[in-house]
Design brief:
single chain, alpha/beta, 37% helix
Length: 197
Amino acid sequence: MASEPSATPMTLTTVVASTRPGRVGRSVADWFTARAAEHDGFESHLVDLRELALPFYDEPHPPALRQYTKSHTVEWSRIVDASDAFVFVTPEYNGGFPAPLKNAWDYLVVEWQHKPAAFVSYGGVSAGTRAVQMAKQVVANLRMLPIGPTVSIPFVTEVVADGVFRPGKIHETAAEQVLDELARTAGVMRRLRGGTS
């Protein structure tokens, strides 16, 4: 089910957390970004942290001050500030999420606030669920709202062929639930931030 169209479409940004060679995260994120583009509640965009190439946090001032001195920080701030909701596509590394994702969160503070966050996780038998549980604590501290529905993909290599993620019905259904919940929540939180809906 899709939400009613708003006067100004909301921007949903899907973030690829893994930056390692040979990753499957980009194929999963490409699928979800295309799926989100079909939902009339959002304009769908993708950010690949490997392409964004943020260095380890290198600003001299605390991010809450927004006194950025680096062009990569300014660009990342612009992207996050313009987004109404986020989906983080993440694997699980040693029971947690990848370091590049934490680094991307730590660059900013104000831009994340009062925006919903959802997760698409993948891996082996655990499907990345422990990474999501840890990640929810971080985004909550950034004053984001982690929503309940998630997409969890166990044994992900079995559903990726020739670099393309092949979703099953369970993945499609979960994605629809995530998008519907994000649309409802993002509309409310946009009003909370003083925007239009």
